[in-house]
Structure formats: C-alpha cells, structure tokens
Amino acid sequence: MPRLATVLSLALLALAGCGGGGDGDRTADRRATPTPTPRPKSIPREALKPPTGPVTAAEKAVIRGWADALRNGDVERASSYWRTPAIAANGSQPFRLVTMRAVRQFNAGLTCGAKLEETARDKAYVLATFRLTDRKDRPGACAQGVGQQVRTLFMLRDGKIAQWIRATDPPDEGEVPGGSES
User: Fold this and answer.
1) Which of 64, 120, 126, 165 gets the most CB atoms within 10 Å of its CB?
2) pLDDT digits (tens, 9 = 90+) for 57-67
3) Which residues have C-beta within 8 Å of that of residue 128, sequence separation ≥ 6?
C-alpha cells in the first residue's frame, strides 16, 4: 500500500507540473501585458530623395578615385570605392554584385582604364564622361578603344558606388542617331 501511495503522489506532482493549472493561472495570463516590440527607426524623407543640383566635389572624388585606381591597375583599390550589393551593366542586362569578390571580378574584367573628363547630374545618377586609356596592369588590352569617349551612369550611396551603368554614347558631331547622315 505505501508503494501505491508513493506512485499516486508522484503522478499528481507530474500533472501539476504540466501547466494544467486552474482558473487562477488563466486570470494571470489575461492580465499580462505584452512586451512592446521596438519600431524600426524611420528614414527621413530627405534621405530617400535623389540628389539634385550640381554634382558635388565628393561625388566627383569617388568617381575620379575609382577611375584613377583602375587605370593604374589597382583593382583592389578601385573595388574599395564600391558598396555591396551593387548593380552593374556594361552594355548588357544589369546584374547584382552581392559580394566584394564579385565587385573585384567586375573591375578586373574591364579591359580599359579611363580618365574622367566631366560629370553632370542626370536625375538620381551622376553621368560621367571618360576618355579610355590602357590599364597599367593590362597594356594593350584596350587596343582600339584607347582615346574613345565613353559615358557611365553612377548612383552613389554613402560615398560608394551602388550602381554602374554604361550609358549610350552620344552621336558624333553632325551624325544623326541611328546612323543616317544629315
């Protein structure tokens, strides 16, 4: 008989510990207030607006720094002017560069160097005009491109390149777009 009492006592203790409490527990649950979750900080509207006005000295410095580093064959330094993820399109469909390794590969794959000639604002982008050059680490790779003028659209975020999109080149003077002569 003492054995049966011990087994019953243990069974009752196990049931009591399973959370199957009475009404008092439910009342306590109803009165509990949920812990408020912190709201994410809102981004000021000014930060979401694209830059307007003339191209800033800081924007020019980023673009010039990237071009100078690449022209001098320093892919690592050129890549440091980028952020990830970034978007790039060199006359093709845009693609995402999600790692710094991908940014380095993109920069390493550009066969020409470039010298910044001018910049202009184009909505959220900075339109940069370059004169193509050879790269010090790839002499002769630019070949027929040397001396040509090219344009690239840059979107900068927090002082880094977030988008790099090859822009169509303007027609030569006196040439009508589409190849017809006037």
Assistant:
1) 126
2) 999 999 999 99
3) 63, 67, 116, 118, 119, 151, 152, 153, 154
